[in-house]
Amino acid sequence: xxxxxxxxxxxxxxxxxxxxxxxxxxxxxxxxxxxxxxxxxxxxxxxxxxxxxxxxxxxxxxxxxxxxxxxxxxxxxxxxxxxxxxxxxxxxxxxxxxxxxxxxxxxxxxxxxxxxxxxxxxxxxxxxxxxxxxxxxxxxxxxxxxxxxxxxxxxxxxxxxxxxxxxxxxxxxxxxxxxxxxxxxxxxxxxxxxxxxxxxxxxxxxxxxxxxxxxxxxxxxxxxxxxxxxxxxxxxxxxxxxxxxxxxxxxxxxxxxxxxxxxxxxxxxxxxxxxxxxxxxxxxxxxxxxxxxxxxxxxxxxxxxxxxxxxxxxxxxxxxxxxxxxxxxxxxxxxxxxxxxxxxxxxxxxxxxxxxxxxxxxxxxxxxxxxxxxxxxxxxxxxxxxxxxxxxxxxxxxxxxxxxxxxxxxxxxxxxxxxxxxxxxxxxxxxxxxxxxxxxxxxxxxxxxxxxxxxxxxxxxxxxxxxxxxxxxxxxxxxxxxxxxxxxxxxxxxxxxxxxxxxxxxxxxxxxxxxxxxxxxxxxxxxxxxxxxxxxxxxxxxxxxxxxxxxxxxxxxxxxxxxxxxxxxxxxxxxxxxxxxxxxxxxxxxxxxxxxxxxxxxxxxxxxxxxxxxxxxxxxxxxxxxxxxxxxxxxxxxxxxxxxxxxxxxxxxxxxxxxxxxxxxxxxxxxxxxxxxxxxxxxxxxxxxxxxxxxxxxxxxxxxxxxxxxxxxxxxxxxxxxxxxxxxxxxxxxxxxxxxxxxxxxxxxxxxxxxxxxxxxxxxxxxxxxxxxxxxxxxxxxxxxxxxxxxxxxxxxxxxxxxxxxxxxxxxxxxxxxxxxxxxxxxxxxxxxxxxxxxxxxxxxxxxxxxxxxxxxxxxxxxxxxxxxxxxxxxxxxxxxxxxxxxxxxxxxxxxxxxxxxxxxxxxxxxxxxxxxxxxxxxxxxxxxxxxxxxx
Length: 936
What we know:
The protein folds into 7 domains: 1-50, no CATH class; 51-376, no CATH class; 406-482, Helicase, Ruva Protein, domain 3, CATH 1.10.8; 496-584, no CATH class; 589-735; 736-847, no CATH class; 904-936, no CATH class. 52% of the residues lie in helices and 7% in strands. It is built from 40 helices and 13 strands.
């Protein structure tokens, strides 16, 4: 701990110390506890002010701190400024000239080395507003020659190294009303200078209740910010250190954040002593800007005279990227738990204070949205004045309140009514008068000499807000807009990373101002402007990488084999500038970023064959790199061969079919990886098929997809060297028990010729006739529906079974099954519905009168006895059919008839099967015409 060399009892604050101790003993009733705390507060102030290196205590986004900083910088003109900010963010400060405040300094890391990979990406942001002391210090240092700005706080890497000691998040969360702008910082860890807030919830509640305010930001503005706005520098400095000491001492004993704060103080003072030793700077010409909480530190490394060391751990090997991202008032409020509108109120207070006090602030030359301010002329350093007690007067005498500014309040009342009418409220002049009077009434009830912006907001809500909000904004939000608005910063083109610049350059042919926050419509007609096709390619890549609302297609799509002639886009890239900047941390072009992400996704430990096939498709659509696509395809083959489950079989089947169709239509031959995928998948699914049929964890849809892969790609697989026997053995070894899977097995056997269609129909009829099994018939039917993808020739049988089910199932079974049938068809067999509907259209009559006389084709027509065994009338037809028994038998089985011949041993007999004879007799002209054509 630093030695100040002055007796605490006789120092400039001795009288105040005795006064506070006596008052504490009188009210507390004892010499310990409260007297020790109050005396310690005075000691902290005394010790901080006597430090050889001048400490400037600040509070984040405080107009009073900014005013005091501007005054002190012009008076002292320090040569070195030590600023409490992450030391690795220093190179970004020079780019603030190319931005419109508020913006945030950001450190970003997506590839971690030394941190758990599941925490990626890591992000740190430090918002900067014009009404802040840190911006005044930065502008002074960058605009004044021979002034050095040194950032001394822990690096971004150390922020996350110390994260286990922190609370779960350094930034208290709040659900802002404007979620869009409140999310500008995302889930980044927020770093600010001077976070002053009571550590005890009871203390904060006590202050809010007795201050008659709703939120801590309102209390701070009313009782600290406004009184200190016009105070001199010594008073400001002593009061801020006193408040920091109070909040520091009134904290829980097990507060983990206090431990981290003390380590930060050791870190900062270590960096300061190192810089002074290496540069030889005069401490009297230096200024240490830090939070008031740290200015009252009691750690042993405090001050320049400390000899205690602090070991700073080295940074990890994580590669950090740095840049500027746009920020906003609402984003700062949301991230740091401030009241809605408090930062906007602070900005308004700053502008009013500048006009009232005529203080000349420091601004960066050339910065967007600001005016250039002349740098201070070089002057001799101001002599250090002796420390004088200003606390006693400030604490004993209430600050003179500002008088009522009727013109300002009246203007607010009129403007809020005008805004309310524009947003759908039925407000009038009477409401303006009511808001004016209610504001004064609320200020009087709360013991205030003049209404604050928060009193005015409460009055406006009371007088204007109705039962429902007619527009998009309520009165509270309208008040925030009126009292300063939600200013949104912007990073100019010069300060953007190379990727973002490349995006703006390549989209310049569109002729749009993409840096604006408004949504803009881009129309692309490739027939008249073929030069816009590269813009379209880039927009589709951005659509893949940026949030949905940043680049949204209105007309046009990009699928394999499709190329639209016109496209229409809604672009809001300026509103999503943060996401575009963060893409620049991952690569130089968006194509490189997409390639890295696709490669990372397929090599992820949780990657599957379906994931790899999706990456292949995106590579074909967006990158068009044959080498990279083949690399992803080879990875898909590896993943498929190593999978032990078939959960993704439907997705694999859908994607591989689409890719094969694309290659067959565009390439002379399939790529090698496609052939390997088909052969590997055929052997893989044949191996897993028996287990999948019996595994309860494997669904019917997955088994149906496996069969679809094996059946639909069998011809290609066999041409590439696979053996059909594999599939037959797999089907024969399958013995499912689940009714739906049994139906799938029957369908597979029918496709392979292992089960005739007549036998399949007979089994289904037996299920309907068996009272013990009829309850499971809907499950069998669901299995048949799923099998249509693998065996589309079963569609007539499925239509037949559906008709029989609706006609013969009892209501107790049919009615509960109908909702499940509809959901199953919608979710799992949507692509099969056109097949079923087309088959039903061919089967059922098209008109209602025809339904009464309609006979289902699966119902046998009555024939006279012996007619089925009678020989055909045309002997030429009989002889032709008897000569070609095998195709006749196959056709009869396919149509659901018995293909058995009366004399199977006699190959010269012309007797036909009864079913075939009946069919020819029913259609004699067709049979005779076919025989005439085929017979020489």
